[in-house]
Design goal:
Elements lengths: L1 H14 L3 H6 L6 E6 L6 H5 L6 E6 L9 H13 L4 E7 L3 H6 L8 H14 L1 H4 L5 H22 L1 H9 L4 E7 L6 E3 L25
Parallel strand pairs: 1-2, 1-3, 3-4
Antiparallel strand pairs: 4-5
Bound molecules: zinc ion.
Length: about 210
């Protein structure tokens, strides 16, 4: 890896002798990518983007939990300081974390993290229980997990307060198909609080829950 680093530095300098001087001046990425920690889905490589273009947070099975200070700090910094325009939750087919959540086996501490995906299963059991092929079931849960995690982001005060201030922030749900390398847009993009369901929408003018 260290010799790979030298080769990469040399190739970048050959293209542009000022490359690292420019990079060191600062970052202004327009995108926050929240993806899986799986080694096969690195954000920059799969999207053909360069250093400086994508702010990245990754965890097992791209779970967005409201009590995760790490994720919330990344989200707050990206949205309120870097002013990113797009937040993308990116899952991938064949996700080991999602597959593990579909079993009744214990894998260790991770079981407590994957519990959040079991909750997604519970919400969509009526659909998932009708799928007999295990691979198809995992991949559909991968999609539903991305959808629910992107909604989880929309439910945060961070995203909702940003939407009150500006109209150029969108939350998206994508899947990387590791069989082809291609990204599928699940078309669940959101840019306002209205579709979240009344109990989740923060609106100081109204008493939504009686
Ligand atoms: Zn994964």
């Amino acid at each position: 890896m260290l010799s790979g680093n030298r080769e990469w530095v040399d190739s970048k300098l050959k293209e542009d002798p000022e490359y690292f001087k420019t990079l060191a001046k600062g970052q202004s990425p327009e995108v926050l990518w929240i993806g899986c920690a799986d080694s096969r889905v690195p954000a920059n490589q799969v999207t053909g983007t360069n250093p400086g273009e994508v702010f990245v947070h990754r965890n097992i099975a791209n779970v967005c939990v409201h009590t995760d200070m790490n994720m919330l700090s990344v989200l707050d910094y990206a949205v309120n300081v870097l002013k990113v325009k797009h937040v993308i939750v990116a899952g991938h087919y064949g996700c080991g974390g999602v597959a593990a959540a579909l079993t009744n086996k214990q894998f260790g501490l991770i079981d407590n993290w994957l519990r959040h995906i079991k909750d997604v299963y519970r919400m969509h059991a009526h659909e998932l229980d009708r799928i007999s092929d295990q691979e198809a079931k995992v991949n559909r849960l991968v999609e539903l997990n991305v959808i629910e995690q992107s909604y989880n982001l929309c439910k945060t005060t961070i995203i909702q307060n940003a939407w009150k201030e500006r109209s150029d922030l969108e939350v998206h749900g994508w899947i990387v198909d590791i069989n082809t390398g291609l990204i599928k847009d699940l078309k669940v993009s959101n840019n306002d609080s209205h579709s979240l369901g009344y109990v989740y929408e923060f609106n100081d003018d109204e008493v939504a829950v009686h």
